[in-house]
Structures are given as structure tokens and as C-alpha cells.
Amino acid sequence: MDKTMLDKINRFTRRDFSEDELYIFSVILCDNDIDRDGERFSDEALESLKILFVGKTGIFDHDASSSNQNARIFDTEIISDNSRTTKYGSTYKYLKGTAYMVRTEDNKNLISEIDGGIKKEVSISCCAEEKICSICGNEISSCVHANGKYYNGKLCHTILNRITDAYEWSFVAVPSQVNAGVTKHFSDDSEKISFSAGESENEKELRRDIRRLAYFSGGRTAAAAVELSARNLNTNQLLELKKSYERLCGHNGIRVQLMTEKSEEESNNSYTLR
Fold first, then answer.
1. Dist CA 71 CA 255 (whole Å)
2. Are 178 and 50 contained in the same domain?
3. Helix (H) or strand (E) holding 34
4. Contact between 50 and 77 (Cβ < 8 Å)
5. Is residue 191 predicted with pLDDT exceeding 70?
6. Of 55-64, 66-75, 137-146, where does the model show the most confidence?
7. Dihedral sign, Cα of residue 41, residue 47, residue 51, residue 55
8. Residue 23: how many CA atoms within 13 Å on its side-chain side?
9. Are 108 and 214 contained in the same domain?
10. Is residue 266 situated within a structural domain?
11. What percent of the chain has pLDDT over 70?
12. Taking CA 13 as the corner, what is the angle to CA 109 and CA 240, rounded to the nearest 5 degrees?
């Protein structure tokens, strides 16, 4: 492990950790091929997820409880494999995340299972606002084509685009994406975050962070509820609400590391949390 890698990890820790204290492993988060659900990520979506997944926590089976956290991604990379093509004839690409865990007595069995290939498949939770038909280019909600059917020799599938947020990644038992060996989990259209006209970028980021904290304190229902309750709050009220959720998550044992202390100082009043 070189110093560059340690520096990336220590951006998310309260103190600097040494190489001996850490366990590092890589996961394939998602790819651009058509999966068993007849869906795929666009190249634009992969680029968005590459940014959004830095700093995101790893859990089990999408159970958004604080005690279920086990790892954190500190670096991501999109890899193109020119020796492989997707089912629709494009170069195969996948998003790889590199994660760290702090070695403890409690997680030594999990580390052994990862090394032994027992804990292998992972799934992501994110919000995709656009779901496009590969045949006509329209939203699937206003399209007459059917996933899995061929039209003029082309397989109809759904293209996932406009990723607005990434919540977490999970170890799962049953994979869905064949090539990458991962599955995925999305927010419903009803769970889109709505913003008011003229709302600042700082306020938008605050709302995203509050929703994410609510997700980890009480799951999807809590995230949807807080979005509604925070809709008419001003910046100062949003800041107070965010702090209250951070305290709540802290009491539940979660270490909220959406932004490091160093980056918070550097950004002054910018609430861009990564």
C-alpha cells in the first residue's frame, strides 16, 4: 500500500491509520451491459456513479441500519475491457470501487470470507431519474416497446441515466448482472428528490445529505418522509435538521463521514458533501 492510497483513506478517518491497521479490497459495483432485469447503465451514469460512490459505506442486503456498516469506498475507477463486448455491441465497461475496513476482532471472520471468495457479490443503491427505452429513446413510462423483445434485430432494454445520488453498496447472495457479478437496487420514481425553483446548490446538497442520513437512520420510509417535511425549510433550518440527523445516527453507532473535517474547512460555506 503506497502513501497515495493511505492519504485517500485517511481523508475519511478521524486520525491517520497505518497500513497494518487496514484491510483493502476491490468490488465491481456495476457495468454497462444488459442484466437479467433487461437494464443497463449509460456511460454518463457510470461517470456520475464514479464520483458519487467515493466515501459511500458498505452494508449487507441493503439493510440501512447503522450497526450494519462494514466498509467504505475511498477510490473508484471506470475500466474498459476492449476484449469484451456488451450484448448490444459496445465495449464492456465496469465501475470498480476500492474499499477499506479497519481490522478488528469483530470483522476478522468477514475479512476471511472476502479473501476466500465467500463474500463476493455486491449490489448498489442509487437514484436513476431517467429510464430510457433503447429502441425509441423515450422514457419507458411513455413507450410501447417491451423489454426482452427484439425489434428489427435489436434487443429492447432499459437504459438507466441521470443518476442523482448514490446511497450505499451491499454484499448480497444472488447476483443479477451477469458479467460484473453484481446486482443493483434503485429508488422508485416516487422517491425522486424534488427541488424548488431558484433553490441554491448549497440547499440542494443539504437536502440530499439529509435524505441520505434519514435513509441510514430509518430506511426508505424515513428518507421519503424527511424529504416532504424539509421541502419548505430555509438554509439555516436545513442545517439544523442535518445536525439532528447526524446526532441521531451517531447515537445509533454510525460514524457519519459524508465530508471530512479538512474538506469542510477548505470549502467554507459550501455544503458539497462527498
1. 11
2. yes
3. none
4. yes
5. no
6. 137-146
7. positive
8. 16
9. no
10. no
11. 76
12. 115
Is the entire prediction scored with pTM above 0.85? no
- Model confidence band, residue 180 (pLDDT cutoffs 50, 70, 90): very low
Range of the domain at 208: 201-261
Residues comprising the chain, all counted = 274
Asked if 171 and 60 touch (Cβ cutoff 8 Å), the reply is: yes
Which amino acid is it at 8?
A: K
Q: What is the pLDDT of residues 213-257, one digit of tens each?
A: 777 666 667 777 888 888 888 888 888 888 887 777 654 433 333
| CA dist 122 → 6, 18, 68, 104, 264 (Å) | 24, 27, 15, 22, 30
Q: Is residue 59 part of a domain?
A: yes
CA-wise closest residue to 203 among 230, 179, 176: 230
Of 193, 186, 190, residue with least CA distance to 214: 193
Q: Say if residue 170 is in the same domain as residue 235.
A: no
> Please, are residues 127 and 192 in contact by the beta-carbon 8 Å criterion?
yes
Phi, psi of 216 (to 5 degrees): -80, -15
- Kindly list the distances between the CA atom of residue 85 and the CA atoms of 34, 93, 94, 116, in Å, as whole numbers in the listed order: 11, 9, 12, 29
